[in-house]
Amino acid sequence: MKELTFKACDMHVHFRQGDMLTKVAPLTAQHFARALLMPNTTPPIRTAADARRYKREVMDACSQYKGFEPLMTFKILPDTTPEMVRDFLPSLGQIPIAVAGKVYPKGLTTNAQDGVEDYFELFPVFEVMQELGLILCLHGEKPGKYIEGLDRERAFLGTLKFIVATFPDLKIVMEHITTDAAVNTVLDMPSNVAATITVHHLLLTYDEVGVDKMRPHNYCKPVAKRAADRDALVEAAISGCPKFMFGSDSAPHPQHKKECSECCAGVFTAPIALPLLAEIFEQHNALDRLANFAGRFAWRFYEILEFLDKPAKQVTLVKEPMVVPEKYGDVVPFKSGETISWNVKN
Amino acid sequence: MKELTFKACDMHVHFRQGDMLTKVAPLTAQHFARALLMPNTTPPIRTAADARRYKREVMDACSQYKGFEPLMTFKILPDTTPEMVRDFLPSLGQIPIAVAGKVYPKGLTTNAQDGVEDYFELFPVFEVMQELGLILCLHGEKPGKYIEGLDRERAFLGTLKFIVATFPDLKIVMEHITTDAAVNTVLDMPSNVAATITVHHLLLTYDEVGVDKMRPHNYCKPVAKRAADRDALVEAAISGCPKFMFGSDSAPHPQHKKECSECCAGVFTAPIALPLLAEIFEQHNALDRLANFAGRFAWRFYEILEFLDKPAKQVTLVKEPMVVPEKYGDVVPFKSGETISWNVKN
């Protein structure tokens, strides 16, 4: 029986807060050694104190899973100051309280009403992040009312180029890319620029979100694009290029907030992401590259030193069918009720 | 106070059957003099006997509205025969039992699982329709699994060209067009080829359907496209070109079949279509052309002789605000709860 064992990292995941956190965090912790937690909680994670408190909550919720550790981020808002950023790394050489700051474009996804319209305003913050070696994570869609939704990611690439040119030593991750244009732009950039790719964007086109059928459980931001875009993402993920890392963007919402008018954006994949990735990579004869895409490339780019010191759990994927549960609590997962040809070995 | 009085025609509307018919048919009959009823009921309207029975049901439901008359259609299926078509016009020169036949592409909209994949198969039927002067209505999206949803209308234009070239005397209506490509193709064709345009496609882009927000009550087939497409549709509707007629494609579905996963396709506009059209036409300084777009062009193209003999009700639109009801029964209308600057005078 085919098996694959490695230390898995999910470099983009939403745990939310409160009861939802308690329910979903262990579903990530049981498979992954490290996960980068998004800071767009309610209220957001803005300060070092916020990040410390949030990390404790997550560690408490996941205490049964040794060898899992959350990597913290902070939300960069128009009023974030360089001083607030310095707090995340009290002394150089230490492990920072948060490893990355995340910028959300105003109004374009869940809890982004407080997001950014003018990236220039953030340059003093980016300057300090570059100095401290903190990573900048970008939701790569351009805000503003004169851009159509399906064009926002392509329109953002100019903004990305300008930030990259201005801060040559800043490590930047364009999150959950969805277009061939983004793949090519990131490929053309220097090695301090990388991207995450979700598992659902390796499978979906817009037809499965809102054209052929309207499927709110497949709806996320940025929305899946065309088949040519999806194919470019698969190509990037299996390429072995260390610029492309796995980030699930797994985002839980209760069923009634998905099956409604104006549903929340987010696809819940955390507990099935690794089996699905194994299925996709196997289909493309690239199973030997999965441990890089969904693990090693992340801890190299993020320089997750703790991997050397602290225990990091391994996951073993095994080729045997699993049926995706209809629900996890009141959250309907991606591929609900469908069968995947890989599973996680207990 | 601005007023506008004319005989309105809705050349594409769904009444469905049973209780839904009883509820929605009067909402059309109270405003429109004529309406072309789509035959994709359950079961479908396939034969002259079906059409006679369905017309009676509609007339019964609308008996309080004198001067309204439904125009019947039949559903053209792979097994429709020329003989079945001849039944719709028992003797030449008479008013036909159905004025048009409608082709649905397989699987692409509500009740289209029995639809067509191979248009060649239908050529014997088209031949008889051409001979009898019956009109061919086409849902203009190309079926088949290798075409992306957003491309289906453009892909269909080749099929349309071939049918038009093969049957030069067949009157053809491409229904509910959604792209600038369809506008231009219809414009380039001879005068026996026309198109209907809905009111929601004059207002929506897919951002308001499934990208910026996911709004199932705006979801229909074909889905709204880009801003440039919407603008081309507005241009066509207000142009004064008699090839472009109003057809609402109003399609009622109960709320629970819209606010769910894999919702039904269809936007319910019947009771607010004329006020909305007046608002749009006024915004574009084209109010004087509304009576043509939403009336005269239809009865000319369809040669609705009954207009001369039978009473045809007039509608008076008046510039005064109306608030769209949240619901009509359990059907949530387009623009639910919003205010329109025009109303229908009682």
What's a quick, concise take on this entry?
2 copies of one chain form a homodimer. With 346 residues, the first copy, chain A, is an alpha/beta fold.
Can you put this structure into words, describing what you see?
The structure is a homodimer of 346-residue chains. Chain A is an alpha/beta fold. Helix content of chain A is 30%, strand content 15%. Chain A has helices at 18-29, 48-61, 82-86, 123-132, 152-166, 180-188, 227-238, 273-283, 290-301, 306-309; strands at residues 3-6, 9-13, 34-37, 69-71, 73-76, 100-103, 135-139, 172-175, 193-197, 244-246, 315-318, 322-323, 339-340, 343-344. The radius of gyration of chain A is 19 Å and the shape is globular. The two termini of chain A are 15 Å apart. At the A-B interface, loops of A face loops of B.
